[in-house]
Design goal:
This protein is an alpha+beta fold. The protein has two domains: 48 residues, Roll (Ubiquitin-like (UB roll)), CATH 3.10.20.80; 83 residues, Translation Initiation Factor IF3 (2-Layer Sandwich), CATH 3.30.110. 42% of the residues lie in helices and 30% in strands. It is built from four helices and six strands. It has a four-stranded mixed beta sheet with strand order 3-4-6-5, covered by helices on one side. A two-stranded antiparallel ribbon has the order 1-2. The protein is rod-shaped, with a radius of gyration of 29 Å. It starts with a helix and ends with a strand. 10% of the residues are buried. The model has no long low-confidence stretch (mean pLDDT 92).
């Protein structure tokens, strides 16, 4: 071990222990500062190339008027253009839960409007008092 340290000092580099669990321990002579710098650069480049996907939510009710639904569809298209996923929630309050077919019809209308702009990740399904559909942009 002392000989390896002496060799590393003679060359002007560091002695780095690669594996301590083996007998004898495996070591490497290298410039440790340069190695750490390269590792941080690799990590930085990997972070730069990754994409973050946000999930936006649009909320509707069964009594939402036709024009308001058109405005919501425009918002959904805008979110999809920005490469965000969109969660479309139909909220049922009180006795509205008995008329889920109205909400399903509105969801199907929205789905038919967006068929060219997106991929449907999750079909409309009832989760408690909410009907949820998730769409994502086409690649």
């Amino acid at each position: 071990m002392d000989e390896a340290i002496a060799n590393a000092e003679r060359v002007g580099l560091d002695l780095v222990e690669v594996s301590s669990s083996t007998e004898p321990p495996v070591c490497k002579i290298m410039d440790y500062g340069k190695y750490r710098y390269r590792q941080s650069k690799k990590l930085h480049d990997a972070k730069k190339s990754q994409t973050v996907i946000h999930i936006k939510e649009i909320r509707l009710r069964p009594k939402t008027e036709e024009h308001d639904i058109d405005v919501k569809i425009k918002h959904i298209k805008k979110f999809l253009d920005k490469h965000d996923k969109v969660k479309i929630s139909m909220m049922f309050r009180g006795r509205e839960i008995a008329f889920t077919e109205i909400g399903r019809k509105i969801m199907d209308d929205i789905k038919s409007e967006l068929v060219n702009e997106c991929v449907i990740d999750q079909e409309p399904r009832l989760e408690g008092r909410n009907m949820v559909m998730i769409v994502s942009p086409k690649k």
